[in-house]
Each structure stands twice: as C-alpha cells, then as structure tokens.
C-alpha cells in the first residue's frame, strides 16, 4: 500500500479562550455572574467589583461565597433521596469516557426536568453544543440506556416504551398502543384493538402492564429547590410603547484601577499591565452581555406585543432562527441570551423563552397559529364547558374549528395531557354524586 503526505489548506472558525469565556459570561445567570466577577476581583488587583445590596447567598463552591465556619458538610448530605443530576452524572462519567461525547451528554442533563423527561428538543441541544443532530441523537440513545429506564425521554410514550423494553415487555402491539395513548385515554378500546391487530381483551391486558410502569421516573430522586430570583429585565410602558430596561439593582458595578504601585520593577509593571488588560476585557464582555440581552428582549417584545396584552392565546410563531436573522447574531447566541432569563411584565414575571413559540403547521411561519396559542385555546374551551356534561375531544375539535383552528382529535388529546386535563370520561367521573 502506497502512503503519501499531502498538505491541504482549509478555512474554519477557531474559538479563542476569550471567545469561549465571553460565551460563558453571556449564558450566566445574574447570581453566577456576580460570583464570577467576585472571584475575578480576588485574583485581579486592577478590578474593583461593588456587589448589589440585598444579594441572595452566592452559589456555594465559589471563592466569593464565604461559608459559615461552623458548617458541617457531612451533616448537610442528603439523607433520603439522591439528586437526579448526581445520579446521572456518575453514570455519564462511566458511559462517556470521550470528552466530546461527555460534553454533549452533560448538555442533555441541563435540560432534564424533575420528571426525568427532556425539556428541550434534540435539535436545540445539538445547536447549542455545536454538533450535528445525528451526533446528538446517538448520545441521547446511549443516555436512554442509563438507570432507571425512562430517563431522558422526549414524551410520555417514549418514557413508557423505554421502561417496557427494559423489562422485556415491549412488543409491536404494545408499541402501537403506547403510540396512541390518546385513544386509550378516551376509552376507544375496540379501535385500538384493530390498530394493533388484537382484541379488546389484549388491549386491556396491555393496560395492566402500562399501569405497572412509572410515567415520571425522575420524581424518585430529589431536585434542588430553585431560589426565587429577581428578574433580569423589566418591561415598562413609555410614550412610544413598551420599553425594556435592565434591572440594575441586581447588577454589580465594575471599575478598572491602576492597581498597587510597582516602583521600578519592570516585571511587576508588566504583570500589572496584563492585569489591567484582563480587567478591561472583562468589563467589555459584561457590557456586551447586557447589550445582547437588551437587544434580544426588545426584539421579543416588539414581535410579541399581543402576547403581553392578551396572554398565550395571542402568541405568534417565533423561532430563535428568526431572531438571529433579524439581529445579525447566531441562533446559539440567542439561545444563550434567553436561557434562565426572567422579565417582569404586567402579566407577571415570565421567562424570556416564553416569548418563543413553534408554528402549529411547520413552514407556515407567522401566518399560521402558534402551538402555544392552540394549547391555550384547548384549555379555554375546556374551562368554559358545562362541568356536568364535559366535552369530548371530538366536540373540542368542532368548537376549535368554529374559532378558525383546525385540530385533529389526537392533537387535542395531546394538548389536554400537556395541560393536565383528564379525559371527558374521567372529568365526568370526578363529579360529586347528587345528594
């Protein structure tokens, strides 16, 4: 076999250490940012950081957080249930020895909800981490093999399928039934039996197996209580309409100083010059973070003003890609800017992610209704029903169509499940018996 050495020139974007640090700063919550800046001030004599008053305790494990000297770490250990994050983290360290794959796996962990389900799509995680969707799918497949079965599922059907497969119960017939849980909830046993080439008795036997599965395996673990944090932004009505402003009461004040005197020591002067350069860069990075956050929030408010006035039913389809195209930013930058950010509005304090909504019909853009608007419509129709005569999913479809929204019956069942609304049969069964 002949071997040749060939030189090839390619163009690519390499992220410098400062670019990576700037992205981390953009994604930090205000508490994480304060802790990070306090740590930097301890290391850099040319950086002064004035912390805001009334600041909640800084995250533990940082140099800026001063723990109580009497604190006993052994006594503070969780005595009952282990943490979900710690549980999967230990398994990931063994299952993903390659750093690249482990980084993708940990990105999925960040989206885990208390139920153990994923709180973000595979496409979103792949975009945020900067890997192809196929790579993210492969990592997710391995994550779904972790214990207990059912973790990292994208929906209820997938969660139950993972557990059934783990127990050796997953047959083609059971898979069909799990794919049509809406029909099962509506009591359409005979139709479901036809779909899976079985009998009503087979479906009822499968139902017994399904009831033995855990729809929310993550609840077997403890989840850390999220502290109540003040909003990052405020929305106020000005003379020219809605205006977004930073909540400066939670932001630290930064100042670059000359540092201590260095007399005639050339090495000390060079080190101080480097420290000043790092301090100035950090101040600019924080300013860019605030500017990006304001720019993104202003875009969302401008495009979703009806949502602010009327609530979720008025949400228009809006994606991070649209925001990135109009603002001249990368979609991953938009995702980082809105992650864990809250804005105070007349409708209460909302996450910025609430201003995004997928189109109900892919490709319809802003002309079609958003998925969130249709979910809100289903909830409003059910809320207005006669409690003594609950509406069937078919009737909800007809009433939605009367308001200009075309929904399939299985879509209504899915939206009911997302809203925690039982079937009409269960809603009727919960009615108190007449005296």
From TrEMBL:
Residue intervals of the RNA polymerase sigma factor 54 core-binding domain: 79-257
The keyword Nucleotidyltransferase appears for this protein: yes
Membrane spanning stretches: none
A GO BP annotation: DNA-templated transcription initiation
Lineage top rank: taxon: Bacteria
Alphabetical list of PROSITE patterns matching this protein: SIGMA54_2, SIGMA54_3
Keywords: DNA-binding, DNA-directed RNA polymerase, Nucleotidyltransferase, Sigma factor, Transcription, Transcription regulation, Transferase
One Pfam family linked to the record: Sigma54_CBD
Residue ranges of domain RNA polymerase sigma factor 54 DNA-binding in the record: 271-429
GO molecular function, one term: nucleotidyltransferase activity
Function of the molecule: Sigma factors are initiation factors that promote the attachment of RNA polymerase to specific initiation sites and are then released.
PANTHER family linked: RNA POLYMERASE SIGMA-54 FACTOR (PTHR32248)
Family according to the record: Belongs to the sigma-54 factor family.
Identification of the protein by name: RNA polymerase sigma-54 factor
């Amino acid at each position: 076999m002949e071997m040749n050495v060939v030189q090839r020139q390619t163009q690519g974007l390499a992220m410098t250490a400062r670019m990576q640090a700037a992205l981390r700063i953009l994604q930090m919550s205000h508490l994480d940012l304060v802790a990070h800046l306090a740590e930097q001030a301890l290391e850099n004599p040319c950086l002064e950081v004035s912390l805001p008053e009334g600041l909640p305790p800084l995250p533990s494990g940082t140099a800026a957080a001063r723990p109580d000297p009497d604190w006993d770490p052994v006594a503070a250990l969780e005595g009952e249930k282990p943490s979900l994050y710690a549980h999967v983290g230990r398994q990931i360290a063994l299952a993903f020895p390659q750093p690249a794959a482990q980084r993708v796996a940990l990105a999925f962990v960040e989206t885990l909800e208390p139920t153990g389900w994923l709180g973000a799509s595979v496409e979103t995680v792949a975009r945020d981490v900067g890997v192809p969707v196929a790579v993210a799918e492969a990592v997710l497949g391995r994550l779904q093999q972790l214990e207990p079965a059912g973790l990292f599922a994208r929906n209820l059907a997938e969660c139950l399928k993972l557990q059934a497969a783990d127990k050796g119960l997953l047959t083609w017939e059971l898979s069909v039934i799990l794919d049509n849980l809406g029909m099962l909830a509506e009591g359409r046993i005979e139709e479901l039996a036809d779909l899976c080439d079985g009998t009503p008795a087979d479906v009822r036997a499968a139902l017994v197996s399904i009831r033995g599965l855990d729809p929310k395996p993550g609840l077997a673990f403890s989840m850390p209580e999220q502290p109540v944090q003040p909003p990052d932004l405020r929305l106020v009505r000005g003379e020219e309409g809605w205006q977004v402003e930073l909540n400066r009461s939670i932001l630290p004040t930064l100042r670059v100083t000359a540092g201590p005197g260095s007399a005639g020591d050339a090495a000390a002067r060079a080190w101080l010059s480097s420290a000043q350069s790092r301090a100035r860069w950090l101040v600019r990075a924080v300013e860019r973070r605030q500017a990006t956050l304001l720019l993104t929030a202003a875009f969302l408010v401008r495009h979703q003003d009806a949502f602010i006035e009327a609530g979720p039913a008025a949400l228009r389809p809006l994606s991070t890609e649209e925001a990135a195209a109009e603002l001249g930013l990368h979609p991953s930058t938009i995702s980082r800017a809105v992650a864990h950010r809250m804005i105070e509005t007349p409708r209460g304090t909302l996450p910025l992610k609430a201003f995004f909504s997928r189109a109900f019909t892919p490709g319809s853009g802003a002309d079609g209704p958003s998925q969130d608007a249709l979910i809100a419509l289903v909830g409003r129709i059910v809320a207005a029903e006669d409690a003594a005569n609950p509406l069937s999913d078919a009737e909800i479809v007809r009433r939605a169509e009367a308001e200009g929204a075309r929904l399939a019956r299985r879509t209504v069942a899915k939206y009911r499940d997302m809203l925690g609304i039982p079937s009409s049969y269960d809603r009727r069964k919960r009615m108190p018996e007449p005296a």
